[in-house]
């Protein structure tokens, strides 16, 4: 029998890209545009492959291939990718993953739980995404990747957020989508729910993961039930839609 998801919890932390909002297509498009300019002979699939991995690691991999035109530094290429992403972002309307607002209302208003955004994304980009989502002042605490010494999978970002909100790691539930992010939550000794892409093997995530979900639908109204009860509720909703 699983423990109740919110048993003993005082805070819930959300990752941004891939968890709170699906920005991955925009990141891929931005990266590919820069890649086509600096290394037109390099296939995207060769270098854009790891869930939750930072842009600096991706561009370092491209540099290691030796296929670039001219001299480039990984940091400069990251900045170019961010600029391209922001151009793409400007042309799009963004909405959070389905079910988020219902969940957030229940957590904050009905259960008086603190909410934080904990993302590896750089502040300049992350703030623009939050603006698009109308969430600039929504969270009790926000921390970006450039504000810590070690990004995920290191636990620093989560431990820092917990300290700022005055909660113990064991009192935190984390929503993550990537292997790196999930490992960071696990390393911080926090409970975990994965917003799952349906492709990454579940065995790559911590064994203690509570749930794997497509989005946030089905959580609101079921947070006082055990995970298996939530699965049943979600299955019933799916059956009704079918």
From TrEMBL:
The keyword Metal-binding applies. Keywords: Magnesium, Metal-binding. Its cofactor is Mg(2+). GO terms for molecular function: catalytic activity; metal ion binding. InterPro entries: Beta-PGM-like, HAD-like_sf, HAD-SF_hydro_IA, HAD_2, HAD_sf, PGP-like_dom2. The keyword Magnesium applies. Pfam families: HAD_2. Signal peptide: none annotated. It comes from the Bacteria. Belongs to the HAD-like hydrolase superfamily. CbbY/CbbZ/Gph/YieH family. NCBIfam families: HAD-SF-IA-v1, HAD-SF-IA-v3. This is HAD family phosphatase. It comes from candidate division WWE3 bacterium.
């Amino acid at each position: 029998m699983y423990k109740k998801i919110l048993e003993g919890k005082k805070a819930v932390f959300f990752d941004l890209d891939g968890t709170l909002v699906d920005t991955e297509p925009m990141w891929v498009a931005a990266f590919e545009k820069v890649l086509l300019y600096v290394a037109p002979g390099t296939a995207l699939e060769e270098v854009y492959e790891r869930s939750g991995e930072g842009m600096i690691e991706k561009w370092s991999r491209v540099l290691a291939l030796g296929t670039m035109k001219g001299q480039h530094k990984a940091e400069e290429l990251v900045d170019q990718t961010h600029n391209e992403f922001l151009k793409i972002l400007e042309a799009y309307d963004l909405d959070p993953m389905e079910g988020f607002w219902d969940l957030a209302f229940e957590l904050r208003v009905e259960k008086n739980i603190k909410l934080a955004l904990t993302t590896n994304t750089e502040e300049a980009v992350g703030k623009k995404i939050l603006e698009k989502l109308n969430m600039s002042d929504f969270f009790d605490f926000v921390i970006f990747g450039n504000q810590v010494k070690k990004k995920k999978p290191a636990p620093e970002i989560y431990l820092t957020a917990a300290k700022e909100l005055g909660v113990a790691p064991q009192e935190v539930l984390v929503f993550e989508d990537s292997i790196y992010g999930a490992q960071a939550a696990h390393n911080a000794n926090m409970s975990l729910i994965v917003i799952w892409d349906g492709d990454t093997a579940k065995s790559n995530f911590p064994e203690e993961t509570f749930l794997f979900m497509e989005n946030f639908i089905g959580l609101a109204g079921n947070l006082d039930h055990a995970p298996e009860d939530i699965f049943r509720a979600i299955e019933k909703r799916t059956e009704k839609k079918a």
